[in-house]
Fold this sequence. Notes:
The protein is mainly α. It folds into two domains: about 5-90, 434 Repressor (Amino-terminal Domain), CATH 1.10.260.40; about 100-150, no CATH class. It contains nine helices and no strands. About 20% of the residues are buried.
Amino acid sequence: MESIIEKYKGIHPGFILDRELKKRNLKKGPFALSLKEYPQVLGAITKGKRGITPELSLKIDHALGLEEGTMLVLQAHHEIKQVKQKSIYDIHPDLTVLRKALFWDTDITKIDWQKQYKAVIQRVFERGNDHEKREILRFYGEDKVKSITGSAEITSNRLPIMRGAKSR
């Protein structure tokens, strides 16, 4: 059988605690008081707004009959996941080259450049200028850009305004 740590690795331990309490038909308030903790503390933990301390982890593990350190290890895995995600967000193209107007509908600093690469590449190659396209090409590489756009070539976005129109 899969251990609770492997099963829930990376998830905030408060969410697992909340699920465990519901599964056992235990109310948060009385459970918190049985641990000699404030119900507000347990409420914040189960909402993912607060982490679990080593002392509280031992109390919860003992009260629920879990292996000692389970909640603390889950807390550590959750924090590791957060650090990894933050470092992913730190890896991005040169934002001084990309105009914020390209991403008018979102906060450019909160884009997950790895997960949302398809949308980013499409948008820049549809609406971006040559400098922006070069930066995206540099950041993602020719293969990835070509897989999305069909070509890794940078062509200017000059619209043929009034071309072929006759003057009257």
